[in-house]
C-alpha cells in the first residue's frame, strides 16, 4: 500500500519540490490549498506535477477544517509548509501571521493527536528564529534564539509547541530549521527573485532599475530542491529530532547581484540598483550562517547545488520566462 503524505503550503516554493520528490518515491500526495476562487498552480505546473496531486481545500486558521482533513486522510506523514512566509509583511500583518504560523501548527498537532496519532509530523522552522544571535560563529541546534520579526516569533512558538507535543504525548514530531533556500519558483517578493527577475528585465529592455533595501545583509542560501530531501529524511529516522539544514556558507546581497548581472552580461550593476528605505526591516537582521554537521552525520544529507549555480539557475529561468512573453 502506498504511503500517504499531506503537504500544507503545497502551492508555495517548497511544496511542489517536496511533492515531486514524494511522487518519485511512490507516495500518494495530498496538497492543502485555501478556498481561492482561482488557485495559482503555476509552481506545480512548472514541475509538471499538478495532475498527480490530490488537492484538498482547507484553512490553517480554521481548526475544524484541519480536523476533518486529518480524519479523512489519516496520512502517514504531514509536512507543514504553510505560512505567511514574507518577513517584511509580518510587521504589517502580525495577527494573520501569528494565526497561520503559530496557531495553525497547534491545530494540526491536536488533530493528529486525537485522530491520527501514528502520523509523523514535520514542521518547517526557520533560521529567522536565530535573528541577531549574540553567539559568535555558525548557528547550531544549540544556539539561543533571538527572533527579530513577528514572523520569526510566530515560528518560534511553532517550534516549541512541536517539541512539547513530542515530549508530552510521544508523537513523532520533527523541526527542520531551514536556512534561506531559493529556486526559479521563489516568490517575487523575496530579494533573490526580485533580483533575478529585475536583472532579466533590464537585460531584455523591459526595465531600467531594481529597488532594494540592505545590500550588506548576509544569508546562507541553498537550493529548495536539495532542502526538501532533508525534510523527507527527517521523517524516515527511528526517532524524531530537530535539524539545521544549511549550506554552511554565507553570501551578501551584493554577491548575489554580482553573479546575476555577470550572468546577464551587464557590467557596473551599481548604476541599475536603487536603495529604497521601504525595503529595510524595522529590526534589521544582518547575518545568518548555519552549521549542518548534524544533518550530514545523522541524515547523510548534504547540499548539492552551489551558490553560483543557484543564481545562474534562477537567472536562466527568468530570462526564459520573460523572453517568451
How would you describe the overall organization of this protein?
By secondary structure, the chain is α/β, with parallel strands linked by helices. It has 2 domains: 4-181 and 221-245, Rossmann fold, CATH 3.40.50.720; 187-219 and 249-287 and 305-323, UDP-galactose 4-epimerase, domain 1, CATH 3.90.25.10. The chain contains 11 helices and 13 strands. It has helices at 14-24, 42-46, 63-73, 87-92, 94-115, 150-169, 191-203, 224-234, 253-263, 293-299, 307-323; strands at residues 4-8, 28-33, 54-57, 77-80, 120-126, 172-178, 181-182, 210-212, 218-219, 222-223, 242-245, 251-252, 273-275. The strands form 4 sheets. Strands 3-2-1-4-5-6-11 form a 7-stranded parallel beta sheet, with helices on both faces. It has a two-stranded parallel sheet with strand order 7-10. Helix 1 (14-24) links the parallel strand 1 and strand 2 (28-33). Helix 5 (94-115) packs parallel to helix 6 (150-169) and helix 7 crosses helix 11. The longest helix has 22 residues, at 94-115. The radius of gyration is 19 Å and the shape is globular. The chain starts with a strand and ends with a helix.
Amino acid at each position: 500500500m502506498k504511503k500517504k503524505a499531506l503537504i500544507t503550503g503545497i502551492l508555495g516554493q517548497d511544496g511542489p519540490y517536496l511533492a515531486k520528490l514524494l511522487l518519485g518515491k511512490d507516495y500518494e500526495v495530498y496538497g492543502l490549498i485555501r478556498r481561492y476562487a482561482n488557485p495559482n498552480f503555476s509552481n506545480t505546473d512548472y514541475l509538471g506535477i499538478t495532475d498527480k496531486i490530490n488537492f484538498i481545500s482547507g484553512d490553517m486558521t480554521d481548526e475544524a477544517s484541519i480536523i476533518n482533513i486529518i480524519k479523512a486522510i489519516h496520512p502517514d506523514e504531514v509536512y507543514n509548509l504553510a505560512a505567511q512566509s514574507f518577513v517584511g509583511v509580518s510587521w504589517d500583518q502580525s495577527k494573520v501571521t501569528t494565526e497561520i504560523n503559530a496557531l495553525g501548527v497547534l491545530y494540526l498537532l491536536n488533530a493528529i493527536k486525537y485522530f491520527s496519532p501514528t502520523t509523523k509530523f514535520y514542521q518547517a522552522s526557520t533560521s529567522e528564529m536565530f535573528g541577531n544571535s549574540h553567539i559568535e560563529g555558525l548557528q547550531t541546534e544549540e544556539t539561543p534564539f533571538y527572533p527579530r520579526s513577528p514572523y520569526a516569533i510566530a515560528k518560534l512558538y511553532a517550534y516549541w509547541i512541536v517539541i512539547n507535543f513530542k515530549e508530552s504525548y510521544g508523537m513523532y514530531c520533527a523541526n527542520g530549521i531551514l536556512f534561506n533556500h531559493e529556486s526559479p519558483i521563489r516568490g517575487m517578493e523575496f530579494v533573490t527573485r526580485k533580483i533575478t527577475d529585475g536583472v532579466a528585465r533590464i537585460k531584455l529592455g523591459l526595465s531600467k532599475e531594481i529597488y532594494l533595501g540592505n545590500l550588506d545583509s548576509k544569508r546562507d542560501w541553498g537550493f529548495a530542491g536539495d532542502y526538501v530531501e532533508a525534510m523527507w529524511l527527517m521523517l524516515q529516522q527511528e526517532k524524531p529530532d530537530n535539524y539545521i539544514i544549511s549550506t554552511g556558507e554565507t553570501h551578501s546581497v551584493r554577491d548575489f547581484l554580482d553573479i546575476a548581472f555577470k550572468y546577464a552580461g551587464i557590467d557596473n550593476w551599481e548604476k541599475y540598483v536603487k536603495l529604497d528605505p521601504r525595503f529595510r526591516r524595522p529590526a534589521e537582521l544582518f547575518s545568518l550562517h548555519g552549521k549542518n554537521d548534524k544533518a550530514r552525520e545523522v541524515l547523510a544529507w548534504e547540499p548539492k547545488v552551489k551558490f553560483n549555480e543557484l543564481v545562474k539557475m534562477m537567472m536562466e529561468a527568468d530570462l526564459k520566462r520573460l523572453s517568451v512573453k
